[in-house]
Amino acid sequence: MPFDFTTLEPYLGDLALGARLSALACALALAGGLLLGTVAALMRTASAPLARRVAEVYVDVFRNVPFIVQLFFLFYGLPEIGVELSAFATGVLALSLAGGAFTSDVIRSGILAVEPGVLEAAQVSGLSRLAIYRRIVLPIALRTSVRPLGSVFVNLILTSSILSAITINELTGTAKIVASDTFQPFEVYLLLLLLYAAMTWLVSLASGALHRRLNRNLA
């Protein structure tokens, strides 16, 4: 049967708005996940057993439970204990918590990769432990973690498609509405496929370029 993409033209604006909402949710979740992941990585490399255990439990739970279960728990469960969040805020929170668990592994690996000699030199210079981590360890760890963090962001973009399950009309949610209105699922979902491929490709390109820029003096 013939395929007609011209009938989708009136809906391109809606799809663009959906893509923008997806991008906003992912950008906020990236910031939240980076913060949570950094804190968890520091706790996992700390000398205090309790801090390590708490961080490990957090990472294990959010890496090993399906994202849609986490999303439904936050969306339907939090109001039961008096925590009222919008669907969008709940989606960003869920993505941040899940992203933080994976980000923690990346940053932890970066911290452990810092040469012991660098730490010894910093200690000899009289810097406090906090200053060593803030001014030396974390900048090195983050610089070497750019590519893996780019992969985490790509995964956030892909995972964000599940947010439509809690009534958020991001890119996938909008595409479902358009497919229902036009009765053209092939055209709509092919366009959706291409949009997600473009978004993830751009993120991969950007992370690769940033990695080369930050590490150009180490080549």
Automatic annotation (TrEMBL):
The keyword Glycosyltransferase does not apply. CDD domains: TM_PBP2. The chain crosses the membrane at residues 20-43, 55-75, 81-102, 149-168, 188-210. It is a multi-pass membrane protein. InterPro entries: AA_ABC_transptr_permease_3TM, ArtM/GltK/GlnP/TcyL/YhdX-like, MetI-like, MetI-like_sf. It is found in: Cell inner membrane; Cell membrane. Residues 15-207 form the ABC transmembrane type-1 domain. Keywords: Amino-acid transport, Cell membrane, Membrane, Transmembrane, Transmembrane helix, Transport. The keyword Membrane applies. Belongs to the binding-protein-dependent transport system permease family. HisMQ subfamily. Part of the binding-protein-dependent transport system for glutamine; probably responsible for the translocation of the substrate across the membrane. This is Amino acid ABC transporter permease.
